[in-house]
């Protein structure tokens, strides 16, 4: 995963986002150790290179061990056109914004390539 240049200006208007608290955690290990267990996960599923002529989709999987649908795909959201490829999905605020209290994780972004 690419990292931003060290001298790049902060995205939150000029202050260091690590000075306060916001969504996410500073590092993946911190997420594992301190974060709540995920109950759902969204997985991009692509057919590119498989020879299958179907729509790519976003799968919603159940990760709650107490659920009757644990470890199953519980929903598929197809993209619009065959051949579009789901690519670089993520939240509108990534974990690197963990210190910005104005950052909110409200939208899952799913751009696609033609």
UniProtKB/TrEMBL annotation:
The answer to whether keyword GTP-binding applies is no
**Which keywords appear in this protein's UniProt record, sorted alphabetically?**
Selenium
Q: Name one GO molecular function term.
A: selenium binding
Q: Does the keyword Transmembrane apply?
A: no
Which residue positions does the secretion signal occupy? Answer: none
Top-rank lineage group of the source organism: Eukaryota
The similarity comment for this entry is: Belongs to the selenium-binding protein family.
Q: What is this protein called?
A: Selenium-binding protein 1
């Amino acid at each position: 995963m690419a990292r931003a240049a060290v001298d790049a200006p902060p995205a939150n208007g000029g202050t260091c986002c690590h000075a306060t608290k916001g969504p996410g955690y500073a590092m993946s290990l911190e997420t594992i150790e301190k974060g709540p267990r995920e109950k759902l996960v969204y997985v991009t599923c692509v057919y590119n290179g498989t020879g299958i002529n179907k729509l790519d989709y976003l799968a919603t999987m159940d990760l709650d061990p107490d659920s009757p649908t644990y470890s199953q795909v519980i929903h598929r959201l197809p993209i619009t056109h065959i051949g579009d490829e789901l690519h670089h999905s993520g939240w509108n605020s990534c974990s690197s914004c963990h210190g910005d209290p104005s950052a909110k994780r409200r939208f899952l972004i799913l751009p696609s390539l033609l």
